[in-house]
Amino acid sequence: MKTRFVAMLAACLLLFLQQKATAQIQQGNVLIGGNISNIGLDLGSGKNFSLGITPKAAWFVRDNLAVGGYLNFGLNTAKGAGTGIDYGVGALSRYYFGRETVNLLRHARFFIEGNAGVEGYNPAVGDNTNGFGFGAGPGVAYFITPNIGLETLVKYNGIVGFGSAPTSNNLNIGFGFQIYLPSKKIRQVENDVRER
Fold this sequence. Notes:
This protein is an alpha+beta fold. The chain has a single domain (2-195), classed as Porin (Beta Barrel), CATH 2.40.160.20. It contains two helices and eight strands. The chain has helices spanning 2-23, 183-195; strands at residues 30-42, 49-62, 65-78, 82-97, 108-122, 129-145, 148-162, 167-181. It has an eight-stranded antiparallel barrel with strand order 1-2-3-4-5-6-7-8. A hairpin with a 2-residue loop joins β6 (129-145) and β7. The chain is elongated and about 50 Å long. The termini are far apart.
């Protein structure tokens, strides 16, 4: 009898957690976080390695679709030549798809992310480009809790503009985290701050 009760309790808890795992990408919720290690491999002649920080914030305008903004700051090192700087600011969008019914990825969702904004690629050696930046690529978010997701993102980034080269492009592999907050909790925190 006790074993049956524990099994039933575990099944109810699992069902509750599964329902919560899909609630974070619903309309009205907020996504905050970013890529804490953005590792890049230059596809051009510079042979640069880069590490950057890309904070992001977005609002779910409808279920599975988030729209927001991003900042990008990166340091590039070229073999024996010094350090260069990357920067960027602009708009981003994400669309989540797939169901979490695959046994190995029960708490994961695939997504596609796209961005556009003002960006610059300024390595220590080689050609630089500053101007209109754009990017797109697939990713996967694995939810370790109902509100925190670890993610991997493979993204093509390009810049068209001015500098010693009219264009630049690269392929990035980013690892990061996102916090998914229901809009009700954000309003509650805002009200608590105002009351103080």
